[in-house]
Amino acid sequence: MSNKAYINSISTAVPPYKCHHEFLAMLPNLASSHQDKTKLRRMARNSQIDTRYSVLVDVQKEEQGKETFYRSGHYPSTAERMKVYEREAIELSVKAAEPLVQNPEQITHLIVTSCTGFYAPGLDVDIVQRLGLSPNVERNLIGFMGCYAAFNGLKLANHIVGAKPDSQVLMVNTELCTLHLQENVPFDQLVSFLLFADGAAASIVSSKPQGLAIEQTYNALLSDSYRDMSWRIGNQGFKMTLATTVPATIRKALGEEISHVVGEKDRIRFWAIHGGGRKILDEIQEELGLSDDDMHNSRDVLRRYGNMSSPTVMFALKAILEDRNIKGLGCAMAFGPGLTLESMILEKQ
User: In the beta sheet, which residues pair with residue 197?
Assistant: First the structure.
């Protein structure tokens, strides 16, 4: 067997409940000024997001006599949110992973990425039990790395397969971002909830020469942007700060780093860019001179699902994996707290 690692297959899942219009209806009521309300409405219209999904049955209205999760003046505590995460994250993870795990005993390693909840024994242990994996499967949990965490999972899988070619790695990326809506927060924290949604992806990585070959990885901490994006635990959930300067910062940094990311840009035949938001995708497209076709999969994921944090780029890679017309070298990338750039060169035969 070759020591090169391949993403053999990808499966994705979202919860059953649509939440996009409910969140948009709530956000103006959370803004503190008429000016902020106007800004949010304009940003919502320009977001290029049609649908988002949540594990919450109803984020705004009472359902069958039960109180809504988000009640004005009574937003849930972090403990209450983590109780929902512990109950729902495993269900969404299994929904994504089950189609790929036909022979549980063949899975030698499990990698889980998540930044939207914690408990122990954790999501990795629950996945082992629910999927019937071996109790001896090697487990790794990558937490709190945000939107680029899937790349760290893939890099770890790449190292595992490189060292042990007989390995079969299952990676699961699960995020329940909609559990962390905040009340009475600054404008830059409200903006993130125009974008974020729940979702999960699962993939099999092995030395079997099928799918997307992992050819090269690159990462960089972008200078002078440490506070531009943050994700901190508060008494009422996790608080996301997303500076309005992030898209411009990413564009500038990418212009400086692109030769390290892709080498010769003309050799790249497909792109999978994390849909962090419309403005980020716009800035990347313009800086790199990419066509609308190059950006199609990334924009389509944002439109249909919103920003699901770590699973998002895997949704785009799934579309590429399943498109028989796409062949050759491609580039995948994502950005997150740090600000951090993670990228990967992949080849599809």
Answer: none
